[in-house]
Structure formats: structure tokens, C-alpha cells
Amino acid sequence: MSAYIVNDYHISALVNSVSAHEFHTWHNGATQNFTQESAGQILKDENYRSVNSRYQEDDKAPPFDHDLMVSKQPVEILMGCRCFNYQACESDDWDQTLAHSILEMIQSHAIRRVTEGADGWSFEPPKGYVKANVIPLSTMFKRR
Predict the structure, then answer these.
(1) pLDDT tens for residues 23-82?
(2) pTM for the whole thing?
(3) Structural domain includes residue 3
(4) What is the tally of structural domains in the chain?
(5) How far apart are CA 54 and CA 37, in angstroms?
(6) Which of 17, 50, 59, 86 could form a disulfide with 77 if both were Cys (CB 3.0 to 4.6 A apart)?
(7) CA–CA separation, 63 vs 48, rounded Å?
(8) How far apart, in whole angstroms, are the C-alpha atoms of residue 115 and residue 98?
(9) How far apart are CA 124 and CA 127, in angstroms?
(10) Residue whose C-alpha is closest to residue 13's, from 62, 74, 85, 60
(11) Is 64 helix (H, G, I), strand (E, B) or coil?
(12) What domain range is 83 assigned to?
């Protein structure tokens, strides 16, 4: 695998996708609250840690330069999360980090925005539904 440092525009798009009053996540048994700026710095630090782990380097992340004007559609945010996850997953404990929890929260918000107002899926069968009569494959062949 390879990894690279995503730019601050990318991280700004991710953190800007969640309104400031909703910026909290559950991590290590407690609710953690963040500003968009602090969450962006946590993501940036973790991205650097991942690249350092992958390439045996020791570079320090510079301060996160938050751009409040970056705005993307929810599907684009999901794609950005997927990309960021790939760039940040090189550390052995990635899935246990605060950055991972923040990224999951961002994804959850984007999914909610994508599905808002959708008719949704029902657990009730549609009117007129008839269960198919399925014959097990094993009963179709006789043993000799």
C-alpha cells in the first residue's frame, strides 16, 4: 500500500460538512466535543502519523489551515472520507484512534444527508408480495 498527505482543502471539506454544534463523537467510553478546527488538526496529525509509519519517517504535521469556504455535496464527502481513510490507515491502531472516530462521525452525517427525505426501505412486504417457493438443490438430485 501507499499513503500520502492530503491537503488542508480536503480536510476542510470533511470538517465543514458537519455543523459546528454537532461536532462530537463517542471515543474511549466518553463523548468528545470538538471545533471544526481542532477536528481538522486531529485528522491532519493522524494523516502524518500514518505516512510516517508507512515510510519510516518522523515528519511533524504543520498547523491545520482551516478554510471555512470549502463546501462539498454529501456524496463527495463520502468519497473524501474513503480517500482519507486509505491515507490514514497505515498505523497499526488506526481503527482505535480519535481521528478514526471523527471520520466515522463525518461519514455518518454525510449518509444521513444523502438519505434525508428518501422514501426509505420498509420491513413490511409490498402489497401483493408472494414468497417464492424455493426447492433446495439437494432434493433435485437422487443419490445412487
Answers:
(1) 888 888 888 888 999 999 999 999 999 999 999 999 999 999 999 999 999 999 999 999
(2) 0.81
(3) no
(4) 1
(5) 26
(6) 17
(7) 12
(8) 26
(9) 9
(10) 74
(11) coil
(12) 8-140
